[in-house]
Amino acid sequence: MIEVKNLTKDFGFNRGVFDISFEVKKGEAYGFLGPNGAGKTTTMRMLMGFSQPGKGIATINNSDCWKNYYDILGEVGYIPGEVALPEGLSGLEFIEMMKKMKHADDSRISYLLDMFELNPDQSMKKMSIGDKRKLAIVSAFMSDPNILILDEPTSGLDPIMQNKFIELIKSEKKRGKTILLSTHIFEEVDACCDRLSIIKDGKIISTTDTDTIRNNENKVYKIEFLQDEDFNQFMKSNMNIVYSNKTKRKVRVAINDKEINRLIKIISTYQIKYFSESQFTLEDYFLKYYKDRKGESSL
Ligand SMILES: Nc1ncnc2c1ncn2[C@@H]1O[C@H](COP(=O)(O)OP(=O)(O)OP(=O)(O)O)[C@@H](O)[C@H]1O
Ligand SMILES: [Mg+2]
């Protein structure tokens, strides 16, 4: 339903997206994850037909997003990464304008306003960031579109509202909607994504089925060191470190059962404060791709 094929947008200086491909099937919720500047917004903007691909193609329902951008606008509910709303209008006027454009009905709009506890009767200029975000959510969902392209939809929302949003996408997914979701929030991925791709430096570096990770047999060992020196030394070993916190001297190592002897041998030479085993979770997978070059987690 949503497809990008060899999509490239080169901004120069290694910025942009390069030869990326993935597809989101009908009724699927697909996570699109990656660190800041990885290329998520760039890709989503090409899917919305706002920007022309350098190479490759983005299609929705087999229709070229760049050539048929007007159809895409009518079919897709989109929440932009950065919400820019016309400041001269009040929230109510904006909703009225969007309602006419999208042929939305009042009951759906009231339902969404109630859900997010938004009073639209205020000037947009004076709205808080969270209220503007809520307005963008109402506007994306008001016409009950079958396809949703959501670019960090909850940034700026408080935790209660973030949870409400998760409930909303879960129920939309149950109703058969096709969703492409870019987010840095693990709970959103865990709650609804069937598959996901990780993008880094403009390239897709991993694509996976979330259930495969949830049911996998690899283990994660949590280790806390007593001394900085031991922590630093361990960081230099070539174990698969999926998370680390230098201040707390904590690491999480993902290993296959076959490697357990090697791990025990290594840590037996250090002073250990805490050691425990757990399943390699979706969250470990998620965190692994946020590590910076030194192996520290940036979350
Ligand atoms: N119009 C533009 N002109 C030049 N460079 C751009 C432009 N838009 C984006 N970039 C660059 O392309 C890269 C990808 O940016 P993009 O906004 O797609 O990242 P992102 O994955 O959405 O990040 P974030 O998580 O911060 O939203 C960045 O290096 C960015 O500086
Ligand atoms: Mg972005």
TrEMBL record:
Record-level Gene Ontology MF annotations: ATP binding; ATP hydrolysis activity
Gene3D superfamilies per the UniProt record, alphabetical: P-loop containing nucleotide triphosphate hydrolases
Entries under PROSITE patterns matching the protein: ABC_TRANSPORTER_2
Domain of life, source organism: Bacteria
Keyword 4Fe-4S applies: no
SUPFAM superfamilies: P-loop containing nucleoside triphosphate hydrolases
Keywords assigned by UniProt, alphabetized: ATP-binding, Nucleotide-binding, Transport
Domain ABC transporter residues, every copy: 2-226
PANTHER family named in the record: ABC TRANSPORTER ATP-BINDING PROTEIN (PTHR42711), ABC TRANSPORTER ATP-BINDING PROTEIN NATA (PTHR42711:SF5)
Protein name stated in the entry: ABC transporter ATP-binding protein
Species in which this protein is naturally found: Peloplasma aerotolerans
